[in-house]
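WARN  no MSA supplied for this record, continuing single-sequence
INFO  ligand: heme C
INFO  echoing inputs
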Amino acid sequence: MPGVRTLLGWTLTWGLFGLLLAAPGIGESMAKQDPVRVPAEFQKGEAKFNTNCARCHGERASGTSQGPPLVHKIYEPNHHGDLAFQRAAASGVRAHHWSFGDMPRIEGVTSEDVTEITRYIRWLQRQAGIM
Ligand code: HEC
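INFO  complex generated
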């Protein structure tokens, strides 16, 4: 029975080769997909964040030239608890981690608003593996 071994060898070799060729393509098509949809329970927070915070902290809290990303290890719940978000919005923040300057107190957001915003940001952080 000549050939069985050879055939197996060929199948394996070309099979693997095919996978290698296909793999980067798979990665690419996944990267191009839209980011995960914001679950309904966090959409209120998202809207309030976009109105009050995104001009500095960026879309999906990814940062801008005016302010840092909040989806960042230093803002994980253990380092900056939910109270830090309340304090930041109510009283502003003296620049200490970055060189964007101070964050002003944010007018027109209630502590309930900030609670919603914080829940949204915690969700974004979990999506990024920051817990
Ligand atoms: C005018 C720009 C601006 C806006 C608007 C803004 N921030 Fe900030 N924020 C900053 C900057 C700059 C820092 C970083 C200060 C530093 O260097 O640590 C910051 C830091 C923070 C921190 C970290 C606080 C800490 O204890 O270190 C939190 C939390 C935060 N912002 C939440 C918010 C929330 C919530 C909103 C919307 C209600 C908001 N920010 C709107 C500029 C802004």
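The chain has a mean pLDDT of 88.
INFO  checksum written, moving to next record
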